[in-house]
Write a structure and sequence with these properties.
By secondary structure, the chain is mainly beta. It has one helix spanning 80-85, and strands at residues 2-7, 10-19, 22-27, 30-40, 43-48, 51-60, 63-68, 71-79, 98-101, 106-111, 118-119, 124-130, 133-138, 143-148, 155-156, 161-165. It starts with a strand and ends with a strand.
Length: 166
C-alpha cells in the first residue's frame, strides 16, 4: 500500500508491503525490513536493521503523533490515491505549472474554475465522483487556468488530463 506522509515541510512517498509477519517499507529510494509488535494499545515495538525501537502513537487533530526515544514527530499520513484526489500530489508540467489528471476512472460532477481564472495553491478545481465518493481535486501551486479539458457529466479515465495550470 502506498502513502503520502507530511513531516514538517517534507512530503515523503512511503510504500508498505506485508511479508508474512514482517513488513517491507520503502521511503523514497531506501528500503527497510520491519518486524512490528504491539505490546499494548497505542504502542509498537519495531525491529529495524537489528535495532529495537519503542514507538508510542497518538492521534490528535488529524495528525499522528509519533514518539520515539523521547522525541515527538507530527505526521499527516494519507493513502496515495486519496492524496492525489485532494491535489496534494500531482504531476507538474514545465515552468512550475500543474497538469491535473484523473487519479482513477470516474465522472465529472462539477468544474469549479474557468479558463483564465487565477488560482491559489489549495484552490478547488474540479469535483469527480469515483467509487461512490465525491472528491475535489485542488491546485498544488498558484497559477492561471489555461485549459479545461472536461465538462460536468463527462466520464473520465485514470490518467486523463482534466485541467492545465501555468
Amino acid at each position: 500500500m502506498r502513502f503520502v506522509v507530511q513531516l514538517n515541510d517534507k512530503t515523503l512517498d512511503v510504500e508498505v508491503e506485508e511479508r508474512g509477519d514482517r513488513f517491507l517499507v520503502g521511503v523514497g529510494e531506501e528500503r527497510f525490513e520491519v518486524d512490528a509488535r504491539v505490546p499494548r494499545p497505542g504502542s509498537s515495538s519495531l525491529l529495524i536493521g537489528g535495532i529495537s525501537y519503542l514507538v508510542d502513537l497518538k492521534e490528535e487533530n488529524g495528525q499522528t503523533l509519533v514518539e520515539i526515544g523521547g522525541e515527538t514527530f507530527r505526521l499527516r499520513v494519507e493513502e496515495e490515491v486519496r492524496a492525489r484526489f485532494r491535489g496534494q500530489i500531482a504531476p507538474a508540467s514545465r515552468r512550475g505549472g500543474q497538469v491535473v489528471k484523473a487519479p482513477m476512472p470516474g465522472k465529472v460532477v462539477s468544474v469549479l474554475v474557468g479558463v483564465g481564472d487565477q488560482v491559489k495553491a489549495g484552490a478547488g478545481l474540479i469535483v469527480i465522483e469515483a467509487m461512490k465518493m465525491e472528491n475535489e481535486l485542488r491546485a498544488t501551486a498558484a497559477g492561471d487556468v489555461r485549459e479545461i479539458r472536461v465538462a460536468p457529466g463527462e466520464a473520465v479515465t485514470a490518467g486523463q488530463v482534466l485541467v492545465v495550470i501555468e
